[in-house]
Task: structure prediction
Amino acid sequence: MTVRPPTLRAKRRYVLARIFPSGYGPDQKDLYFAVFEAVTSLWGDSLASLIQPAVVAAGNGYAIVRCLRGMERELGIALSTVTSCSGQPVTLRSITTSGTIDSLRSRIHAVQEEAKHAEMRECTFDRRDCTVAFCEGDKVDVIEKGFKNTARFYLTTEDLEER
Result:
């Protein structure tokens, strides 16, 4: 069987999506089912067959989802409707779209290197000592310090009391 020339291949686009809450890495297959369910429930079976969503990679707080060229907008809207994956509450937010997976992976690595060099800050919320787990813009995820019953809070920068 011969390989199709590039002019006859279907043009695909790849959408980079951030997985919230940070630190939760869903299984790629479970995430595929959640994305496909969101696409079919929002757009129906006929448009879902035109979008052809597929989760190419998932992990480290990011997911790469493939679709056909021209359907990136519809896929991004459907990704925003995902609320759970295998019983866990999950939110997907599309960040960018590209024609290659390598460019998206390099963007993920750049963000992770930047986060690695950022210091873990301490803060106080409601008279409890917490550690900042993730901070992007005004959104802040903090984890309460302690051995038992530690909790994760989703706050804004106005809610924090800096030490």
